[in-house]
Amino acid sequence: MFEVHPFDIEIGQYKVMLNLADARELGINAGDRVRIRTKGASLVAILDTTTAMVAKGQVGIFTEALKELKGAMTVDIFPAPKPQSISYIKRIMDNERLSEDQIRTIVRDIVDNNLSEVELSAYITASYIHKMDAQETEWLTRAMIETGDRIYFDTHPVVDKHSIGGVPGNKVSLLVVPIVAAAGLLIPKTSSRAITGAGGTADLMEILAPVEFTADEIKEITEDVGGVIAWGGATNIAPADDKLIKQEYSLSIDPYSQMLASIMAKKGAVGADAVVVDMPVGPGTKLETQEDGRSLAKDLMDLGDRLGIKVECAMTFGGSPVGRTVGPALEIREALTMLETGQGPNSLREKGLALAGILLEMGGVAGRGEGHRRAEEILASGRAHKKLMEIIEAQGGDPAVKSADIQIGDHQEQILSPSTGYVVAFYNKRIVEIARIAGAPSDKKAGVIIHRKMGEMVKKGEPLLTICSSSDWELECAIKDCTMRDIKRQVPIVVEGMLLERYPRMTEI
Amino acid sequence: MFEVHPFDIEIGQYKVMLNLADARELGINAGDRVRIRTKGASLVAILDTTTAMVAKGQVGIFTEALKELKGAMTVDIFPAPKPQSISYIKRIMDNERLSEDQIRTIVRDIVDNNLSEVELSAYITASYIHKMDAQETEWLTRAMIETGDRIYFDTHPVVDKHSIGGVPGNKVSLLVVPIVAAAGLLIPKTSSRAITGAGGTADLMEILAPVEFTADEIKEITEDVGGVIAWGGATNIAPADDKLIKQEYSLSIDPYSQMLASIMAKKGAVGADAVVVDMPVGPGTKLETQEDGRSLAKDLMDLGDRLGIKVECAMTFGGSPVGRTVGPALEIREALTMLETGQGPNSLREKGLALAGILLEMGGVAGRGEGHRRAEEILASGRAHKKLMEIIEAQGGDPAVKSADIQIGDHQEQILSPSTGYVVAFYNKRIVEIARIAGAPSDKKAGVIIHRKMGEMVKKGEPLLTICSSSDWELECAIKDCTMRDIKRQVPIVVEGMLLERYPRMTEI
Q1: Of A252, A273, B40, B106, which one is least surrounded by beta carbons within 10 A?
Q2: Is B122 on the interface with A (CB under 8 A)?
Q3: Does residue A55 belong to the interface with chain B, where contact is any CB pair within 8 Å?
Q4: Which residues of A touch B442 (CB under 8 A)?
């Protein structure tokens, strides 16, 4: 019988802390599982031990477990077996194959918070080193679908779009979704927020309308107006992915089979029949070469076949930002302008039409080879713009919004070219860093306008970039980061003949 | 400027918690590092995020970091880079070789608590999958030595003994240390406590004398009486190992290169010139086959050569317990009896003399092939017994202690053979489980006396085991575990012809 010592800290799982002496008496160690039992409640928690935080005879119980124990003052504690998942994770380490049941058990334990961070990290690390085979990846995907909410549409086809990411300014979903929905297809698009970028599609859309919906609400909106642009993190769709992302971020790794499964689980769970995957290829993206892109495309299409989902992949140019803006408000303004006028940067227009066109063909509303032209018609006719306004209204936003209404940070500074010449180097990563220092994505009005891209001509004194921010101080920091002469800081845009510095790295041009 | 919200919980490292909204504004995520600065103090901590536990504008700070901030009410928070170790751990995942500097950086970060549990787990998992090569393992060992306390003896040779473990009742250090010290060699032995066993050497010795000493005290005692039997966990010798063991236990893995380095770092740090390694081989031990044993022996000897430490390995029989007792007090009584009378189980006597003999030869006080005989003389002469009493006194225990003084749990029960025949199966693991259920190692008086070992004859009604405990209830549990008819519970000793059950597993005999 142990006296409960409450630790009111949420840590995402059932966890308790015993004095080391008590743990020894029970014959258990930190990382073991214990069953906590009191009148009317019983749960299994992960044990930690301490010599100082709780006295002998006490048990420290963290918020999540406390709630389950409903104010009990004393509890009984017994050793409990570790989750079976741990031995299956060991199998991955040993490069042995897993059965469908074993994979489902791991995913279930992840979703139910039954694994400690140490164990989750081991799963991610082992999965990174030893890829699953195609059959295991299918099982993993199915398990991720089954352990979350699902949407079943009565009307088909349902189409969807995913981007592998890695290119800044990639606001194309704001064109693709309304074009496709305007053509009569259903497209229940869930998007992410930026983790290391300057703005995810969900961060952008949030300027126009709420983006946090349940799976049921996503279904309803999609059935109502044909499309939705929601934040995936607010749903319970393929929730295992959300649990894994935190550790993957900590370790800066993205296990291949897990990535395939995460992409396709989200699409499978919303009932997609056909999916187009945007794969930006180029230095600095996740796919350095076209070879890498082809290999990933093959694996995604194979996985789609196994799940009964048609997949097409589009390798896109990832060397420069899409369009000429980076940062939520700037990107929304650029996308709205394109929908309102049909005009705007060619890279944005062409990419949006190409991806929408593929979906129109896959969804059977355009003949093979006709998709791009149909998408162009829909954009030019204003129907795509009208459709986005319907989606905005259905999500609870203002359907009268105009591109000119979008507020941009009023602290702005132009970065001028110090010489006349051509842009001979353009570093996407640096553009994102500068936008983030200016405040993006949490300051939605912060970002970077790009006046010159790779290969374009510029005269001395003409602007290369405009940096925008809501805060004078953050603008100053971004300017400093953009222009400082420091060996660790790459100048974002290099103009031929402009000698900004004499460090060795200039030889890389 | 953030308001400090104290979380008075020790978690083993500098950790802080921000509201998710604040973290987004700072452009950082859970797992990132932040610099916390206040008047007169500055530290780098690992970030976690929350939507509920701390409000916007507040920062939750855990005990370890709180102490450094000396009561500050407000702090500034800035993003800080992740430790470089993380990119080196990624190299291990990618099966790339590390430099000496990179390995040293990882070990330093482990010792300084600069890595989160997630990152430590990734290091252990990656090291388990991708072994280091011999050069890297040498660097790892040297880094583990350099990041802790070291002992430099003026007199040489210094010898030491290590057991790979995995066999119950392995109390041989209690013979080896006094025999070797009585022959004039220095042997500063640090030992472990049981984690999953029924008693480590440190748990045993603690019955006779205190075992918690600093490196300086270990040096002093060893110089004074020739030997010591201390608990390694109380020292700061090769402290990286202590940090890793917790996660290794959680994951039930023991990365090979890390195991080699941990063994040799502890020996290198105490200045050993020569080391004998006891390698129990057999089913249920860590070394299933002699092939495994030979391969480990070669790697340990190679690593010793690189470090300038002579290593010899002794493959020993690991199929049955050493001696006939398992559990701290029972084992101490058995070892003391052997020292007092020279008499006792042959397995204990022979193993102790063999290992001591090897060290006498390695230390140059016995000719090649003469060690065993010399060890036997020292034991028979009573000099080993006298030496252990000196060591006990030097460690602060009672040098007049007799084997007959050692208290055994007075709740005892004999487990009788249900038939006449030979012991045809003997499960070490089950003996340890029963001893632990009876209370060992925290109840030092608990354990198991083994009356019949593999191959021995027994008549119906004669005792197979005696279970001892300080607690009636724990004795009952141990008896139940020993005798219950349950498919999950292997009978510990199987006598030919004794039909205890009809489950399929009987066919394994």
Answers
A1: B40
A2: yes
A3: no
A4: 21, 24-25, 27
Active site residue B133: no
* Nearest CB neighbour to B252, from listed A90, A120, A436: A90
pLDDT at A504 > cutoff 50: no
Tell me the three state secondary structure of residue B57: coil
Give the pLDDT confidence of B360-408 residue by residue, as tens digits: 999 999 999 999 999 999 999 999 999 999 999 999 999 999 999 999 9
Assign A468 to helix, strand or coil. Answer: strand
Tokens in use for B234? 């109380």
Q: Which residues of A are catalytic?
A: 254
- CB neighbours of residue A327 within 10 Å: 35
What's the topology of domain A411-508?
Aldehyde Oxidoreductase; domain 3 (3.90.1170)
Please state which CATH number belongs to domain B159-232+267-403: 3.40.1030.10
What single DSSP character describes residue A492? S
Q: Which amino acid is present at A458? A: V
For domain A159-232+270-403, the CATH class is: alpha beta
Q: What is the ipTM of this complex?
A: 0.88
What Cα–Cα distance (Å) separates residue A444 from each residue in A364, B51, B374, B484?
Answer: 37, 20, 82, 67
Fold of domain B2-80 = Barwin-like endoglucanases (2.40.40)
Q: Which residue has the higher pLDDT, A410 or A420?
A: A410
**CA gap B145, B263 in Å, rounded:** 11
The answer to whether A121 contacts B119, with C-beta atoms less than 8 Å apart, is yes
Mean pLDDT along residues A81-101? 96
Which residues 239-268 in chain B show a CB within 8 A of chain A?
246-247, 249-253
> Is there a contact between B53 and B17 (Cβ–Cβ < 8 Å)?
yes
Are A276 and A177 spatial neighbours (Cβ–Cβ below 8 Å)? no
Q: Indicate whether B182 pLDDT > 80.
A: yes
Whether A264 contacts A141, CB under 8 Å: yes
Question: Residue ranges of the domains in chain A?
Answer: 2-80, 85-130, 159-232+270-403, 411-508
H-helix or E-strand containing A124?
helix A117-129
